[in-house]
Amino acid sequence: MLIVCAEEVRVEAELVGGRLWCPSCRGVLGPWGHGLERVLRCSSGDRLLRPRRARCRGCAGTHVLLPEVALSRRRDEVSVIGAAIEAKVAGEGHRRIAGRLGVPAATVRGWLRRFVERAGQIRAHFTRWAIVLDPELAPLLPAGSSIADALEAIAVAARAWVLRFGPMPVWPLVSVLSAGALLCNTSSLFSPVW
Ligand SMILES: [Zn+2]
């Protein structure tokens, strides 16, 4: 899985121009058809995705290029999932969050349960990113709970990214920095820090 810019024209140009790299071996990726069509539920309405597939010229592995607005194996836009996570850390229950976001309660419960289970790993991952992006970074202070610590690490990494590279919304950036695997249950899907 490789997370790319949501602008299809730009991704196509980068893919054809050999400017996208394999997440496994850093070889050059070339076009390799398309992945399965899927519907992404967005706050602005449903969006049909037809993600590009790419094949590595080095290791011959194939990868689905998922836009940064999505997470791997999740039908909802990453910003909506992120809003639910922020509300959970602020103390709101999953039913209220679901009602407010217009998403089934069981879906929200699934996201939040996974975030709670992986909070330590997520914190460690985004803390590593934050330090890579800003080597002068002061140590992160405990935020009061494991999920608050994880969200704080995400926020610090996102701030460090913006200071270095310019504006980028937090949750699409989370998708990029986790290779789409924020809420996946296998740690191997987490891409290593560059
Ligand atoms: Zn490769």
TL;DR?
The protein is of the alpha+beta class and 194 residues long. The chain has helices spanning 8-16, 78-89, 94-101, 105-117, 119-133, 146-165, 170-177; strands at 2-4, 29-34, 38-42, 45-49, 52-56, 62-67.
Largest sheet: 4 strands, mixed
N→C terminal distance: 16 Å
How do the strands of the widest beta sheet line up side by side?
Answer: 1-6-5-2
Q: Give a count of the beta strands, DSSP E runs of length 2 or more.
A: 6
Shape: globular
The class by helix and strand makeup works out as alpha+beta
Helix and strand string, N-terminal first?
EHEEEEEHHHHHH
> In percent, how much strand structure appears in the residues?
15-25%
Task: Give the names of the bound compounds.
Answer: zinc ion
Specify the helix fraction band.
40-55%
What is the gyration radius calculated from CA atoms?
17 Å
Stretches with pLDDT under 50, minimum 5 residues:
none
Q: What is the averaged pLDDT score?
A: 91
> How many separate helices?
7
Q: What does it look like?
A:
The chain contains seven helices and six strands; from the N terminus they run E-H-E-E-E-E-E-H-H-H-H-H-H. The two termini are 16 Å apart. It is α+β, with helices and mostly antiparallel strands. The strands form two sheets. It has a four-stranded mixed sheet with strand order 1-6-5-2, covered by helices on one side. The protein has a two-stranded antiparallel sheet with strand order 3-4. The chain is globular and about 45 Å long. Bound molecules: zinc ion (ZN). Residues 22, 24-25, 27, 56, 58-59, 61 line the site of zinc ion.
